[in-house]
Design brief:
alpha+beta, 8-stranded antiparallel β-sheet, 28% strand
């Protein structure tokens, strides 16, 4: 917790860069949600990039709608959507205003308020090692554990409710790259990035 408090919040300039650069550099950074008397934190270990200008799998590919409007803001906003009638997924908007790109946070390593997350995910406070690994290793699991939903979409990540704090950059050799998971279009793009060796990856 001391380390978290000493770290700096990522500035707007971090997010307004190209989506692939931001996606890779988000790895290792710390996602924070402030609740009344709690600080929920998780280290980002897996992400996927989406850019509607060339990417048919992106929500922004066919242009701006009421649903995806947040994606077209300048970088540094939180985009949360509901999918399959079951899960929420949280994303970080990147690039210049009007561009339509975002990074999906696929998995985090839980750091603080693990009991709170476990209650939300498994309805219990004491969890096994296997349950800990499965606590936030997927986009829907993250949103359930952190209690993110559509009401959080559009939040400014340079604000004080939900934000990401800095952490040492990873070496190129520490970052894994693959095709994205669970999509049917633009499947050839190698836009999934993850921390090699992390046991908290989605798969």
């Amino acid at each position: 917790m001391k380390q978290i408090h000493k770290s700096k919040k990522l500035p707007r300039e971090f997010y307004t860069r190209p989506v692939l650069k931001v996606a890779k550099e988000l790895l290792g950074k710390i996602l924070i949600k402030i609740e009344r008397n709690k600080i929920l934190a998780g280290k980002i270990v897996e992400v996927e990039a989406y850019d509607g200008n060339i990417d048919e799998a992106s929500h922004s590919f066919r242009g701006k709608t009421k649903r995806n409007e947040v994606m077209f803001r300048e970088g540094g906003y939180f985009y949360v959507y509901f999918t399959y009638g079951v899960h929420h997924c949280c994303n970080v908007v990147t690039g210049k205003e009007g561009h339509g790109a975002a990074v999906l946070i696929r998995a985090v390593e839980p750091l603080t308020e693990i009991n709170t997350m476990a209650m939300r995910r498994f309805s219990k406070r004491k969890i096994t090692e296997k349950e800990l690994v499965n606590l936030t290793n997927g986009p829907g699991k993250i949103c359930q554990a952190f209690a993110f939903d559509r009401t959080h979409s559009g939040l400014d990540l340079t604000g004080n409710n939900v934000f990401i704090i800095d952490a040492p950059s990873l070496k190129k050799s520490e970052i894994g790259i693959s095709k994205r998971i669970g999509i049917s279009k633009s499947t050839e793009l190698p836009w999934r990035f993850f921390i090699k060796g992390s046991k908290f990856l989605s798969r």
